[in-house]
Design brief:
Length: 378
């Protein structure tokens, strides 16, 4: 499927669309500008290896429609992986889309059941100054759904370039720890989508979000113990998840906190996706058990004097396992507050079980104007 095919497909596709759908029902077409495309027939001069090892190979006849394909193979299960990157300068605040055709063969991991295995195919990482300070990242995954081989399919990753970004790198890989298998790529396209981010997003500069794919540098442990762990493939839709486990019933618990400066009198909302596994308490009947997932604590002067607190609970309702759900905590910043901490946990005295978090968001509600100053830590 080479460049000529794309041109013809676009022509006939638009012709059929115009002929078959009344103007009143047509969806407005989003304009896009192709920044870079590669069918891997002319070498890899525009790409760079993340670790320098030349393990991605162009193999004639392996691509879609028997064209040249880009092949990357992990021959046996191991934690080492490689990444082939295309670097570009994006415009902060604007939206982009990367897409690529891929085929998977013999992909498996001894650590995960095949029906639960998801692998990372595409990712993007943004940097403020060369390759030193990250400003954000995002990834696209493919679910194996019980199979080791998957036919050709298109994988799409849409993203926005964060403020303060100097350069970005879109990467091709086959990633999950302790994985084996082969991926073949064809027809990579990077395009700039029309327009800026929608205005509410653009104005909400103090909104903080984290999908836990880029470490925990914005978070602090309440007691200093590093017991919250990012585990690839455990998050919602096979993305990385943040896992916290209390292995046996006890009164000790941990709290991972995000600190920020709130504006007294203003309202905020924290929300996070979570999944519960094996949660129980020997002191409480399961049908009456509720556990704390999110909380916020407000302080007048550092971490000494509290001005208020609030928490969000999840009811087990007789079960030990609960599927993915969103937990929401809305709160107002009390008068006299200097700093606030939103915490993730699995709390109730004498509790055991595991919680997995994904897609945390903290946002202002009353106004988009300087409600929060994220990243203030104590």
């Amino acid at each position: 499927m080479k460049k000529g095919f794309f041109v013809l497909s676009a022509f006939f596709g638009s012709l059929m669309l115009s002929a078959g759908i009344p103007d009143s029902l047509k969806k407005p077409e989003e304009k896009s500008e192709v920044r870079f495309s590669d069918d891997f027939s002319g070498g890899l001069n525009n790409w760079k290896m993340w670790r320098g090892r030349q393990v991605f190979k162009i193999v004639p006849g392996t691509g879609d429609n028997s064209s040249p394909g880009l092949v990357y193979e992990r021959s046996k299960p191991n934690k080492s992986y490689d990444l082939l990157q295309y670097w570009f300068k994006g415009i902060p605040g604007e939206r982009y889309r990367a897409r690529v055709m891929c085929k998977l063969d013999g992909v498996h991991s001894p650590d995960v059941k095949q029906e639960k295995l998801s692998v990372q195919i595409l990712n993007v990482v943004h940097f403020a100054d060369g390759t030193k300070k990250r400003t954000g990242s995002k990834a696209a995954y493919v679910s194996l759904r019980g199979k080791k081989d998957l036919p050709w399919q298109e994988v799409v990753l849409e993203f926005s370039v964060p403020p303060g970004t100097e350069s970005s790198a879109v990467g091709l890989s086959l990633y999950w720890p302790n994985l084996a298998g082969k991926v073949t790529y064809d027809n990579f396209i990077l395009e700039r989508l029309g327009g800026q981010i929608k205005k509410p997003e653009e104005k909400s500069q103090n909104r903080f979000s984290d999908d836990f794919s880029n470490g925990l540098e914005n978070w602090k442990m309440w007691r200093g113990r590093q017991v919250f762990k990012i585990v690839p493939g455990t998050g919602d839709n096979g993305s990385p998840g943040l896992v916290y486990e209390r292995s046996k019933p006890n009164k000790s618990y941990d709290l991972l906190q995000y600190w920020f400066k709130g504006v007294p009198g203003k309202r905020c909302r924290a929300r996070v996706m979570c999944r519960l596994d094996g949660v129980y308490c020997p002191d409480v009947p399961q049908e009456k058990l509720s556990v704390q997932i999110l909380n916020v604590v407000h302080f007048a002067d550092g971490t000494k004097k509290r001005t208020g607190s609030k928490a969000a609970l999840v009811a087990l309702r007789g079960k030990k396992d609960l599927p993915w759900q969103e937990v929401v905590l809305e709160f107002s910043v009390p008068p006299g507050t200097e700093s606030c901490a939103v915490g993730l946990s699995l709390y109730r005295p004498n509790l055991a079980g595991k919680v997995t978090f994904d897609n945390f968001i903290l946002e202002p509600l009353d106004s988009q104007d300087a409600v929060m100053n994220p990243g203030v830590t104590k």
